[in-house]
Amino acid sequence: MVKFSNPVPLQKSILYFFLFTLVVFSVLSCSSQKDTFTNRLYHNTTARFNAYYYADAKIMELEDKIKEKYQEDYSQVLPVFYPIDSSTIEANEELLKEAREMASKAIDWHKISKWVDPSYFLIGKVDYYQGQFDEARNTFKYLNVNSKQDAVRHRSLIQLLRSFIDLDQFEDANFVIDYLSKEAGISRENKKFLYKTLAYYYEKRGEEDLIVPSIFKALEFSNDNAEISRMHFMLGQLYQKAGLDAFAYEYYQKALTGSPSYERTFFAQLYSQQVAELEKSKDLKRVRDYYDDLYEDNKNVDFRDVILFEKGRFEKKQGNLDDAIRLYSLAVKEPGENERQKGYIYQELADVFLHEKENFLKTKYYLDSALKGFKETDRNYAELASRKEIFDQYAKNYELLTRNDSLIRLSRLSPEEQEKYVSDFLEKEEERLILEAQAAEKKENTSIFENLLAFGGAGGSASSTFYWDNPTAIQRGALEFNRVWGSRPLTDNWRRSNRSFQADESTESSRPQLAELEETAEDSLASAQIATLPDKASLLSQIPNEPETREMMEAEMEEAYFNLGKLLYFDLKQAEKAIGYLEKLIQEYPDTPKKPEAYYTLYLASQELNTNPEKYAQLLNVEFPDSQFTKSINNPDQVSGSQANFESGENYKEAYGYFQNREYVTARNIVRETLNRYPLTKNTDRLLLLDIMISGKLESLDLYKERLQGYLQQARDEKLLAFAKDLLSAVSEEDEAAMETETDENDQEALAAQEQPIDPADAASESPYKENSGQTHIFILPMDQDLAESSGDLTAALEKFHAENFANERLRTGTIAISRETSILIISPFPNAERSLMYKETFLNSFNKDSLSEEIKNSSFVISIENFQQLNKRKDIAEYRSFYEKAY
């Protein structure tokens, strides 16, 4: 017998045999075509744990990033699915590219495996996330028809349903829902996804009462604790919104289980206490202590702005408005990463100062701050932006009026009196600043909401000897430095006396204005800082001692009084305040060319308040019998609104055609008949200017020039004004003989250069509007005053229409006055031009209401946020429509 000196152990023999068998198995199984047991086993295994696994992992990684990047807005009902942000998709294109490559390899390399159809599904999801909806839907439809795996078919149909809902294609969505309702054998995972998608369907349609049962069904099939917690929180919000506080409390409490994020935990506790006790409690001290305890808890440092805001809302409900404002003001000073929350706080402050305080200046600045907290895609952005434009105009005119009035009053003093006034003012200001610094020293920590010390023993006590702990010493030092060295910017080598001219110029522009320093109104949001004073010379230099400067400032004040009167009446609905400004205009500037329109606005405001409107009607008839405003008052049965705008526009085009053909008498007859029948429309200024041009052909040169000069004092449209100035300059140096021989040619040349402003049918060559199809858009429906007065019924009909067709958009409606005779109904927001145009098409085809004629419906248009701000400023719908017809 032959014996081996080193026999192989039995265990190693088995291992070698296994490895040999595996190698042979691998070689025999490499074919992707042979449908044998070993082939299927090999391809199923390698497809699942290689290509398909990695493709699925990449898509799950992207979905995790979508969750991470989305900032939940707990002040609104949470969305069923995390919204897909295009910037997140763009930043993770590589993930999708890799997912597509891996899924394609699973299909190409393992054709006989059972992971081919799931890989096709992943490719469909990649297309879906990349916004290639047609390709994605084709894939899902293919799988529904051809796949033998029910789980894949069902998941494809559910994903197809979600894509239809995304694009508001509800008829297609209804078909898929009906099809799925007849399917048997849907897996638990797919049922969960199906019921969440149904909840999304009702969310998009605005049918909140049907969201709840869909979420309940989804909960039955969910095993993910974090997902369950989020759905419970949504149920709590929906029940709270419906006024079912007991149910809301129950589901807010359930949302606390399942390891939710601390942010959701905080809001669940806060809202559960609100619905259970706070809103109904008569023990006000206990409620306030609850908010105080929340604020004091170090775990809630990141939510202190929310706590202060909610406590402010509670105080407002108790009628403690000043306490509410104080708490809101403290809330916005709290650090926090959630800019949207700051936006809500500023929006609340703006509403308080608008409706409760009627302080329009502060309303403007709070609206500015509120808009910074929101994105253009947020549903309240468009409404805030449109409101802000009105208050911007108010602030501009109010501040100009206040500043000029103060400075002109000072200019009436003698030089000695001016110098004494400025010296006294600086002395009082210095005393005030030191007293404020001393008050800051003595202020005690009476509330946990104010003056929390950053360091235990540090503080600004009166006995403090350390300079930087002593506010009074710091303030005195700053004032002394300012007295010795003047107002200097933070820069190197500040002691040098030979600083450059440019440096002096820059510091001059940063010096406080004298009139602004006189206005020491409280700013509840101003943080404590070291204040400095300007030097006497810089303040004296601001006083307008030259007659030309005073004359210019008086003209600015005249314009400001007029603008404020109109803004307050037409936009802010403050008839009494409007009367005050317009009467002041007439009292201070009795020869103002704006007097006819001022009388007309005073007539309307007095009519609204029932305070003798006939007084202004008589003044118009006596002083301006030929004014369009007088004609409007004397013809109360005139056609107005959209019909008047349309007909006057058509008549204008006809008259303009006769003018071009030199049939001046016919043109004038049409113009004057139109002005008599439709005294005030959007075309009035154009008709008046055309009438003046005709007078240049038929009447004396002096009358022509006089009428042009009067037109320049009254017209508002910038392009028409520019055109009128060109006409005036063309004849200002000519005599009557030259006028007769050359004016035809000159006018034709001027018309050729200025056709856009004088002819509304022409498109603007240099339009103030810009094309931006990717910007947030809004839908506009112009209305006359009669329709605007019944806009409540129209809004109700639109809300029903939106619930049926656009519930997912969360559309909002609002109405503002764009001119005396026209209001506009705003529907917003739409993420881009395409979505807004889709809405317009559906509106024209499907929305029906007796009070809304086809003509009015067809006058609707869409506009970007940026262009809307221009439109709201220029008040010229015809001008925008010329741009719209070309751009859209």
TrEMBL record:
Keywords tagged on the record:
TPR repeat
Q: Which SUPFAM superfamilies match?
A: TPR-like (SSF48452)
Look up the domain of life of the source. Answer: Bacteria
Q: Where is the composition biased (Acidic residues)?
A: 733-748
Q: Where are the TPR repeats?
A: 229-262
Signal sequence extent: none
User: Where are the stretches annotated Disordered?
Assistant: 733-755
Q: What is this protein called?
A: Tetratricopeptide repeat-containing protein
Which organism is the protein's source? Cyclobacterium lianum
